[in-house]
Amino acid sequence: MTPVSLSKNKRAVLISGAGIAGPALAYWLCRAGFAVTIVEKAGALRAGGYPIDIRGTAVEVVRRMGILPRLREAHIASRRFTFLDADGGTVASIEPRAITGGAEDLEVRRGDLSASLYALIRDDVEFLFDDAIDTLDHFEQGIDVTFRSGRHRTFDLVVGADGMHSQTRESLFGPESQFHRYLGYCFAIFTMPNTLGLSHELVLWNTPGKAAALYAVGNGDELHAFLNFHQPQPPFDRSPETQRDLVATVFADAGWEVPSMVEAMRDADDVFFDTAGQIRMSHWSRGRVALVGDAAYAPSFLTGQGSSLALAGSYVLANALVTNPDHSAAFTAYDRDLREFVGMNQALVDNGAARLFPTTAQALAQRNAMLRGLAAMPAEPANPAHSALVLP
Ligand SMILES: Cc1cc2nc3c(=O)[nH]c(=O)nc-3n(C[C@H](O)[C@H](O)[C@H](O)COP(=O)(O)OP(=O)(O)OC[C@H]3O[C@@H](n4cnc5c(N)ncnc54)[C@H](O)[C@@H]3O)c2cc1C
């Protein structure tokens, strides 16, 4: 396997979104001689978020980018995952690899991955923070873009890497509801003080349809808190206050440390609330615009494959653009080379990816029996779906 080859092409590409997919795509396109601009609606890189996994094919992508050593250093080597029952009693305590598999796989803070990607490209890419695309107008040779700031520029191509709730997708393909497959859970993620003295470990509390996790990444004074709950219909009100109220209501009678988590959520300034869902589209491009990462094929946190698909998808899209001077041919190749891999990883939700979050007492009892069994078993092998894509 060889990396994306260099070319003398000087096409100008605008990428919307400086999350994971956007900077990864920018890296490969810059290397191939494209002129790349990234517009990001936040005022700076968004460093927050729960730890994310980089697995299988995506490990090969970060190796080719030269950031594997840095990410190995940032790897979160947890000592144990402990599962608790409704009253906080221990159900099972497990060595993490027994659940995650894949000896080469990495788990890093989302901010560490984002910063590693940014460091690779900051001198070569034009960043427009605190701005966003307002309108896109195709003409024969390119696209006229107006920005919310009032800027006006022309590009050869535009790529939407603006996440699950992509504006680029909405403006080109229509409302998110057409592409969103709701998976029946809502979640809130935030940080809170480590008053429990947890260190290098994850503690997960469950009752049917409810889960609360505290993740001590290292032995610092901060914990990543996660509250996840089953909700048959997705909530429609997206205001932060209503979301916090919903979480507080759902967990009102919960045991263990959950009341203090809910209290901490009220004070947290970094709450990330979303529904667990997937984006499924029959096309990832239209005209001179393509989508990459969560914007095109979010697999949901239940698969743990969001960042890996973003990294692999960025590589495949860049490779297609570098090897096909015609953008239509490139977008066809991108679709052809990536779709099966996306499908296999999105299908993980139907094949047990939600097993950590059972919604009935019976399913929870089965999961707990499975966990007790795992505690006595050797590490699970890596999931074949994670490595199913062989990079050109
Ligand atoms: C702050 C944050 C925290 C996250 N935390 C978690 C987590 O804890 N667990 C998890 O599984 N996944 C989390 N994710 C999602 C995870 O990062 C993605 O699933 C995965 O990395 C795919 O990356 P992406 O680049 O496609 O999308 P994202 O990482 O979501 O990046 C999208 C980027 O586009 C920007 N953007 C959005 N709209 C516009 C617009 N109109 N114009 C310009 N820019 C725009 C966003 O600010 C963001 O920087 C988080 C994402 C963010 C942004």
Task: Supply database-style keywords.
392 residues; alpha/beta; FAD/NAD(P)-binding domain; 6-stranded mixed β-sheet; 12 helices; 33% helix; disordered N terminus; binds flavin-adenine dinucleotide; FAD-bd
Helix content range of the residues, please?
Answer: 25-40%
Shape: globular
The hetero compounds bound to this protein are:
flavin-adenine dinucleotide
The CATH class name of the domain at 12-76 and 107-179 and 278-352 reads Alpha Beta
Total beta strands: 18
* CATH architecture tag of the domain at 12-76 and 107-179 and 278-352: 3-Layer(bba) Sandwich
The largest sheet is: 7 strands, mixed
Briefly characterize the structure:
The chain has helices at residues 21-31, 57-65, 68-74, 97-100, 110-121, 167-173, 240-250, 258-267, 294-297, 306-323, 327-346, 361-375; strands at residues 12-16, 35-40, 52-54, 80-84, 90-94, 106-108, 126-129, 133-139, 142-147, 152-155, 157-160, 180-193, 201-207, 210-216, 222-230, 272-279, 285-286, 289-291. With 392 residues, the protein is α/β, with parallel strands linked by helices.
Folded structure, characterized:
The radius of gyration is 21 Å and the shape is globular. Strand 9 (142-147) and strand 10 (152-155) form a beta hairpin. The strands form four sheets. It has a seven-stranded mixed sheet with strand order 5-4-13-14-15-12-16, with helices on both faces. The protein has twelve helices and 18 strands. It has a domain at 12-76 and 107-179 and 278-352: FAD/NAD(P)-binding domain (3-Layer(bba) Sandwich). The protein has helices at 21-31, 57-65, 68-74, 97-100, 110-121, 167-173, 240-250, 258-267, 294-297, 306-323, 327-346, 361-375; strands at residues 12-16, 35-40, 52-54, 80-84, 90-94, 106-108, 126-129, 133-139, 142-147, 152-155, 157-160, 180-193, 201-207, 210-216, 222-230, 272-279, 285-286, 289-291. It has 392 residues and is of the alpha/beta class. Bound molecules: flavin-adenine dinucleotide. Flavin-adenine dinucleotide (FAD) binds at residues 16-22, 39-42, 46, 48-50, 52, 110, 132, 161-163, 167, 189, 272, 293-295, 301, 306-307, 310.
